[in-house]
Structure formats: structure tokens, C-alpha cells
Design goal:
Two copies of one chain form a homodimer.
Chain A: H1 11-25, H2 35-42, H3 49-52, H4 56-81, H5 88-102, H6 104-114, H7 119-142, H8 151-174, H9 180-202
Helix pairs in contact in A: 1-2, 1-6, 4-5, 4-7, 5-6, 5-9, 7-8, 8-9
Chain A binds a DNA duplex (30 and 30 nucleotides) through residues 1-7, 9, 12, 34-37, 44-52, 55.
DNA sequence: TGTCCGTGTGTACAAGTGTTCACTAATGTG
DNA sequence: CACATTAGTGAACACTTGTACACACGGACA
């Protein structure tokens, strides 16, 4: 019989979550993962799963929570590194892309979850995106870059920005993780998208 | 023994495809569907599946083909009904929303497939979107609404438009099919997104 | 020191899975 | 009409699946 391994608390839980992410990173869709498959990947007996999660949806929800942390780290880095306003878009997108590469599976999971099977996960990710958009709106206000926009129009703009960036995840998803050329193309395109949106915002008049 | 039912050619094939769509419409994710499940929903014996498809990915690919037809019908209707340029965006979005409601499962499948498990389905849907974007670019050129944009910038604009509209599918996905108020909100928001993008395009200068 | 309790393990089971096979009825083709 | 082809059927296969149960170990705390 295999020895019972005593691990530090929460280790198996983490193993299971990162096992699910690993499978997602290998191209599987989260909705198609099973409990046994995940435990197998984690090197843990199936019954252990229930010590930490009620079912796969539950695991998905906890992954969304961790995704929130990843996104917040990314925001912090962007705030720290994006100093000159004229390169704001370019640098923000670059930071996004580099985080997306460093946490590929996480962002794949995010892209999948937007149209996923679990309503709760879906709502969780949408909620993260709303939060992200509202933080972006705050930052832009603070930098006094959008003084001519009403709050509502600013919110709309940021919403569109976040969506466009999120959509680029599905581009990233299609290219292999080390195809630097393609990834750079995606970065450039996403940058142009945002520039176009901000040109629109600069000339937007609320009544329109 | 149940009678062997002779049906008109291709009927079982259609039954299987629409069975898969039905399940998607009920909130399931395509990637999590199994052959037996689909055949059960179609009221057909599991073995029949192999008469028409090699596996679920194959079925997915054929669904993408049909999705192409749906999209082309939609384009045709938009071209026929959108006459006055000043309401172009508003009416196009309205037509999109109404088609998305009329073919809910199809568009859910599309939203799922963008980050789906099958690389081939993914690429198929992206290809449909590219086609859609290039047709849109042609139309805009023909209407002489974007004379100041280079081809490349016009392509980018249309790409962004198509993405924004596609993303709104994930909004639609979250509200029940008969929640007219919410659907109208989505329609309005999507319309504003496109207006913002076109304001951006109007003031875009290629060198930027 | 003794006793919970959280977390790991192995076994078990019924139900569901993809796929193969041999069989058969209807259809199209000569 | 004879006949090959297509498209339906049921039975069977080896496996996988989710989940329940009883048990074992180690740390926290009395």
C-alpha cells in the first residue's frame, strides 16, 4: 500500500486546482474535466477530491477567486510601471500579454469560463471583468485623461476596453506559447484596438 | 423490437446536430457532450451516430458550417433592411440581436466554440468571423462611409466591430431568452460600443 | 496522555461511456 | 427483377465515471 503522505495543509487542494489548470493548459476544456481525471493528474486518490470541493463547479469557483488575485497582481504591476501617459496603452497591453503568457492556463480558463457550463463561474468571471473595468475607470479619472466624459460614458469605454482585451485571449489561445512572432502580432493588434477606442472616446459627445 | 424507421435521407443527421444544439441551448457546454447523450436526445440508437459523424469534433465542424449559413442569412437581411446610413449601426445590431434570439443555441455554440476544446472548431468559427469582418469592410467601402481609412485600418476597425458584437453573445448567454428588458439593454450597449468605435474610426489617422 | 478531527487511503458498486459487430429493411441502380 | 449500398437496429465489450463507506494516520488540544 502506498504510504499515506502527510502534507502541509492545503497542499492537496492546491494540487487539485493546478492539476485542473494543467489539463486546461493542455487544450482540454474545463467543462469536460471529470473528478477522476483531475485527481489522477494531481497524483491523488479520487476520494480526496471531496475533502476540498463539493464538485467540479466548486473547484471552478475557487479557481475564479484565484484568478482574481492574478488580475489584481497584474493591475498593481501596471500601475507601478506605466508612468508616461503617452505610452499608457502600449505598456498596459504589453503587461497584459506577458501576464497572460506567464499564467497561460489561468487565462485560458478565464476565456473558457465566459461561455462555460457553470453559471456561477460565468458570473464570477464577468464580475472580475466589471471590477477590472471600474478600476480602470478610476485610474483614468485620476490621471485626468478623460475629463470630458460623463461617468456613464467612461464606464462604457472601459467596458469595451476590457472586453477587447479579454477577447484577445482567444487569439492567444490559438497560437503556441512560444510563437513569439504571433504573440507580438496579437500584442500590436490589441494595442491598436485600444488606441482606436480611445480616439473614439476623445471625440465622443454624450448626446450622440 | 422497435420498428426500423426509414426516414428521408439526412434526417437522422439533422436530428443529431439539432440534438446537440438543443443540449447546448439547455446550458450544457458542447465540449462536455457525449455521443450517447446526443443520440439519446435525438431519439436514435448510439450506433447511428457513426453513420454520419466520425466523432463529436466532426459533428462540431459540421455545426460550424451550418453556422456559416445562419450568418450569411443574417448578413443578407441586414443588407436588405439597412437603408439609411444614419441608422446603420442601430439597425444592424437590432438584426443581430433578433437573429441571436431566433437561433439562440447556434450562437451559444459559437460563443462556446471560440474557446472550445476542438482546435478545428475554434479555427472554423474564427474563420467565419474573419469572413464576416471582410464583408463588412466591403460594404462600408461601397457605401463610401470610410474613405479616409486605409484598407488595413478599415480591416482593423471591422475586426474590432465583429469582436465586440461577438462578445455580446456572452451577455446574451447570461439572460433568459424571454427577458426582453435585459436583452434590450444588451442591444443598446452593443450599439453604443459600435458607435464609439466608429467615432474612433472617423477621427483615426493612420500614422497614429 | 488520551481523544477528536481533518485529511489521506483502498475497495466497491452501479451507471454511463465509446466503439465494434452482425443483422435487416428500405432505397437507388443495373 | 436482382443486387449493392445506405442507414437503421440491438447486444456486447472493456473501461471510466461519480460517489459511498470504512479505515488509518498525525496534529491540536484537553
Amino acid at each position: 500500500m502506498a504510504e499515506k503522505q502527510r502534507r502541509k495543509p492545503g497542499e492537496t487542494r492546491e494540487k487539485l486546482m493546478s492539476a485542473a489548470l494543467t489539463l486546461v493548459g493542455k487544450g482540454r476544456h474545463f467543462a469536460s474535466l471529470g473528478i477522476r481525471e483531475v485527481t489522477r493528474q494531481a497524483g491523488v486518490v479520487p476520494t480526496s477530491f471531496y475533502r476540498h470541493f463539493r464538485n467540479m463547479d466548486d473547484l471552478g469557483l475557487q479557481l475564479v477567486d484565484e484568478l482574481g488575485l492574478v488580475l489584481r497582481r497584474m493591475m498593481r504591476e501596471a500601475r507601478a510601471n506605466v508612468l508616461q501617459a503617452d505610452k499608457l496603452i502600449e505598456e498596459s497591453v504589453a503587461i497584459f500579454i506577458s501576464h497572460a503568457q506567464a499564467n497561460r492556463s489561468f487565462f485560458l480558463f478565464m476565456a473558457q469560463g465566459l461561455a462555460g457550463e457553470s453559471r456561477a463561474v460565468q458570473e464570477g468571471i464577468r464580475s472580475e471583468m466589471r471590477f477590472f473595468a471600474s478600476e480602470l475607470a478610476n485610474d483614468l479619472r485620476r490621471l485626468r485623461l478623460v475629463d470630458h466624459l460623463t461617468d456613464q460614458d467612461l464606464d462604457m469605454t472601459c467596458d469595451l476596453v476590457v472586453r477587447s482585451v479579454a477577447f484577445s485571449l482567444t487569439d492567444l489561445l490559438g497560437v503556441s506559447a512560444d510563437d513569439d512572432y504571433q504573440i507580438d502580432q496579437i500584442r500590436k493588434r490589441t494595442t491598436r484596438f485600444l488606441q482606436l477606442i480611445f480616439v473614439g472616446a476623445a471625440h465622443w459627445q454624450s448626446a450622440g
